[in-house]
Design a protein that fits this description.
Layout lengths: L1 H17 L9 E4 L6 H13 L3 E4 L10 H6 L4 E4 L1 H8 L2 H5 L6 E4 L6 H10 L4 E6 L4 E5 L10 E5 L4 E5 L12 E6 L11 H7 E2 L2 E10 L5 E6 L4 E3 L2 E3 L1 H9 L4 E11 L3 E10 L6 H11 L8 E4 L13 H13 L1
Parallel strand pairs: 1-2, 1-3, 3-4, 4-5, 16-17
Antiparallel strand pairs: 5-6, 6-7, 7-12, 8-9, 9-11, 10-11, 11-12, 13-14, 15-16
Helix pairs in contact: 1-2, 4-6
GO cellular component, one term: membrane
Subcellular location: Membrane
EC number: 6.2.1.3
């Protein structure tokens, strides 16, 4: 509703102002995400419109080199995007050699890879990570824009909202344990149009059940482990694709990576990794050796497949669902 969106704008603005990261008429935000996406509509458009800031729209942001004129013509102070956008900019010499003086860079929509965050920090500064979805009118949590970033954390709930982490029975889990993240607040939508059964399953007693697996640390910082539906069950062990993808992404020859679960006679499911590489002579054995060095044995991919490019959404988010469809076609062939 309009009230959900206005609440989101107020809550996010209050959060940033509380951490000395207010924006005003002197700021310019680069919008490389389509405005029909909830991230760009609520944050880039509504929130910065309310603050009187300039919005620099880039209708065709891919390839990343299409962003160059905007950075050269305007003094960009705020940037939002997904991991692939930040990784793509870091691969551009024109950007790295003359980086913008950003007030803040915000990542959302998909997990921010540690390798991307570390490389960006070395060249430009911190990226703060947030979490949200269409059902939260965009944002639900945001890491505070402070000098010391807790890598992998999406921070705290926005002011005026609540979160809890529950098990499959709906009971809150002990601190530090993993469970499904639930959110409550004035920015949460009322339900799905003409889908009463799905609404009843997702919105329970005012709580939005996000379908994301998360955990809290002792200071209340929240960490998103993965989507429930993306989790791989190997010999009874829960394997989170984000963890494996983060390890593979550390290899210098990797451009993109995505992990899915595939059927396996011995373990029920096994891990399969799809990669895109900048080195045509890279062997999968080298990636496997890298994984074995940094991962427990059951988390090491059983299969690695190299693709020219991984399927992505219009905002640059890698689509694991399309890779699962590709795998199903391979199995049925």
């Amino acid at each position: 509703t309009h009230q959900n969106l206005l609440s989101l704008v107020r809550m996010t603005g209050d959060y940033l102002r509380a951490h000395n990261s207010a924006f005003n008429q002197q700021d310019s935000i680069l919008t490389a995400i389509p405005l029909y996406h909830i991230f760009a509509f609520s944050v880039n458009f509504l929130m910065f419109f309310e603050g009187g800031s300039h919005n620099i729209l880039v209708p065709s942001p891919r390839p990343v080199s299409n962003l160059r004129p905007a950075f050269e013509q305007f003094k960009i102070t705020w940037l939002t995007g997904v991991d692939t956008l930040y990784a793509g900019l870091l691969a551009e010499d024109w950007f790295v050699q003359n980086p913008p003086e950003l007030t803040c860079a915000i990542s959302g929509g998909t997990a921010l890879r540690p390798a991307t965050a570390e490389h960006w920090k070395a060249k430009i500064g911190n990226i703060i990570e947030g979490f949200g979805m269409t059902e939260t009118s965009c944002a639900a949590m945001l890491h505070p824009p402070i000098s010391i970033i807790r890598q992998g954390s999406v921070g705290f709930p926005l002011p005026g909202s609540e979160i809890k982490i529950v098990d499959v029975q709906g009971n809150e889990v002990p601190l530090g344990s993993a469970g499904e993240l639930c959110v409550k607040g004035p920015h949460i939508v009322q339900g799905y149009l003409n889908r009463p059964e799905e609404s009843a399953d997702t919105f329970v007693e005012g709580w939005l059940h996000t379908g994301d697996i998360a955990q809290l640390d002792e200071d209340g910082f929240c960490y998103i482990l993965d989507r429930k539906k993306d989790m791989v069950l190997v010999s009874g062990f829960n394997v989170y694709p984000n963890e494996i993808e983060a390890v593979i992404a550390e290899h210098p020859d990797i451009i993109e990576v995505a992990v899915i679960g595939v059927p396996d006679v011995q373990t029920g499911e096994a891990v399969k990794a799809y990669i895109a590489t900048r080195n045509p002579s890279l062997f999968t054995d080298e990636i496997l050796a890298h994984c074995k060095e940094h991962l427990t044995a059951y988390k090491v991919p059983k299969v690695i497949e190299i693709l020219p490019e991984l399927p992505k959404s219009t905002v640059g988010k890698i689509l694991r669902a399309e890779l699962r469809n590709l795998q199903q076609q391979l199995q049925s062939a």
